[in-house]
Design brief:
Elements lengths: L2 H6 L39 H8 L10 H12 L9 H6 L10 H12 L3 H12 L4 H8 L3 H21 L12
Helix pairs in contact: 6-8, 7-8
């Protein structure tokens, strides 16, 4: 570098704050005692029973049975009992509903449902084809309302096996190992 370039180049200086120095307040650290106005939350290890209760809520349907549930909703929207729904039954169906099964598939499913176990068939008609509440379904089955969800799981497992047995494959969720 030439002497001229060295002279024109600025020499870096440390930053100096103008004015007299200020004394700042001490900042709290993690070693300071907690504020007495804020309640202290003690962290504990999660209890396995509580974790299972959160994951398997009583109303939640097992992910493996959700496709069967959707398939049966499609069945209930269509012919369902082999006959078109009457005006009252059509009014109770939700505004936005799934697409109905193809007619030939619906007939096969109707036959399978009609010849299924009475407990499962009765529950299926009460759950999918009637405007009954959970409490009313429980009264008819002579169980508590909370038990209706357990019967629903059993019915979904039953119909998953039944539909698979007659050749209707419904893809289900399988946990990865």
């Amino acid at each position: 570098m030439s002497v001229q370039a060295q002279m024109t180049r600025k020499i870096p200086r440390p930053f100096l704050m103008r004015g007299k120095p200020r004394v700042t307040e001490e900042r709290p650290t993690i070693h300071e005692p907690p504020d007495w106005r804020v309640p202290e939350v003690k962290r504990t290890a999660p209890i396995p029973a509580n974790v299972l209760r959160m994951l398997a809520r009583e109303r939640a349907l097992d992910p493996r049975f959700r496709p069967v549930d959707r398939y049966l909703w499609r069945w209930s929207v269509g012919q369902g009992t082999g006959l078109p729904p009457d005006d009252e039954a059509a009014d109770m169906l939700p505004e936005s509903r799934p697409t109905a099964l193809a007619p030939d598939e619906a007939i096969v499913v109707d036959m399978a449902i009609i010849h299924s176990a009475p407990w499962a068939r009765d529950f299926l008609f009460m759950w999918f084809r009637s405007p009954l509440s959970i409490e009313e379904i429980g009264e008819r089955l002579k169980i508590r309302a909370r038990g209706v969800y357990e019967v629903r799981r059993e019915a979904m497992a039953y119909y998953l096996g039944l539909l698979h047995g007659i050749g209707i494959s419904i893809p289900t969720w399988e946990p990865e190992e």
